Amino acid sequence: MKLSLPLQGYFDLLKHSPGEKKFVCINCGRPVSGLYRQISSTVLKIIDCDKCKKPADKYIEFEVLIILIDLILLSKPAYRHILYNSDCKNLWKIGCILILLEAYCFWTDAFRGITSITYRSHLTDPFLSEKGFYLSTVHFVAGFLLLYGFIYLFTRVLHRSVPKVTGNGKTYPHMLLHGVILASIGKFLFIPIIIWRENSTETGMAIHIVLVLMYFVISLVQIHSVVSDCTRSRSGVIVILAFIVKAYFLTRVSGLLQQFV
């Protein structure tokens, strides 16, 4: 398999020193010294993994749309490509957008079908109404931090052999944070709720929200299994426990925030 030169610029940030174990094989997850070898000034050849004998990262010659489709299909190789072999500096921006999206849905009562919590004021003062959006944002920031914290805590307790440093040199907490944000991308499916909320029933919206949350949980289990290098069953137990404890503490946080409405 060969890679043409025009795509080489996409990997300018992935240059490495010879022999450095900076990347991972997307098939088996083991560190590799590189992803490709330059044959000539115009031709690159993908390196095979020494362990599984497969191309270390086939996605470096794929279009971005194909990678996104595999992400939607919860492909472990696609997750490894994004988390370990690509630059993830802009993932925090995606996380901020998703938190604001959820906060807006919550503020506009789009989640009313599955929760009784609200931060909307009954007064017509626009400033008091806007305050509810900020409280909703605090609500979801707290929820994200609680979920990440409890996943990390339960992973350390139930799966003690987590890697201190991942293949690309980043620490495990850093990579787990990127993984939680990447798993949250499925929450963009909340956008149809905003668009068609007036033409949907409460039951239909509730089903839509539950399906999106189920997809988020499954994505998080897959990514946790990739980052922590453990089985899906153990990742499922850790993620579900984290969700349960997070829901308990977030209810307490919501009670405090509702006092400001």
Automatic annotation (TrEMBL):
It is found in: Endoplasmic reticulum membrane. The keyword NAD does not apply. It is a multi-pass membrane protein. GO terms for cellular component: cortical endoplasmic reticulum; endoplasmic reticulum membrane; Golgi apparatus. InterPro entries: Arv1 (IPR007290). Its main location: endoplasmic reticulum. Keywords: Endoplasmic reticulum, Lipid metabolism, Lipid transport, Membrane, Transmembrane, Transmembrane helix, Transport. Pfam families: Arv1 (PF04161). The keyword Membrane applies. The chain crosses the membrane at residues 132-155, 175-195, 207-227, 233-251. One of its GO terms (biological process) is intracellular sterol transport. Belongs to the ARV1 family. Mediator of sterol homeostasis involved in sterol uptake, trafficking and distribution into membranes. This is Protein ARV. It comes from Anopheles gambiae. The gene is 1274254.
